[in-house]
From TrEMBL:
This is Uncharacterized protein. It comes from Korarchaeum cryptofilum (strain OPF8). The lineage of its organism: Archaea, Thermoproteota, Candidatus Korarchaeia, Candidatus Korarchaeales, Candidatus Korarchaeaceae. It comes from the Archaea. InterPro entries: PIN-like_dom_sf, PINc/VapC_TA_RNase. The keyword Transport does not apply. GO terms for molecular function: hydrolase activity; metal ion binding; RNA nuclease activity.
Amino acid sequence: MIVRARRGERIEENITSITLVEYPPIRNYEGFRGRIYFLSIRDQLRASSLQEKLRVLGKPMGASDLLIAAVCLNKDEELVTLDEDFLVIKEIEPSFRVIIER
C-alpha cells in the first residue's frame, strides 16, 4: 500500500493500524478509499497463537507482520503485500489468503 500511495495510485483495500503507524500520510491520502482496522484483543491473541505455531516450525515472525496477518484472518480479509515472508502463515493457517504484488 505504501508504494502504491507514493506512486499516487488509488487504494481500495483496507489497512490495519499497523500500516497507519508505519506510514502516517496514508490517513490523509486522497486516493485511499479503504477502511482502517484497529487492533483488538482478539487480534493480539490470534497473533500470539500464530507465533506459537510458527515457533514450533522454527519460523518465528516479527510482531507487526503477525498482527497484520491476525487482523486479516479475523476479518476474513485477503492480504495484498510485497512481502513474501507472509507465505509461511499459510503453512499453519491454510485459510489465510495472501497476494504477493510484484
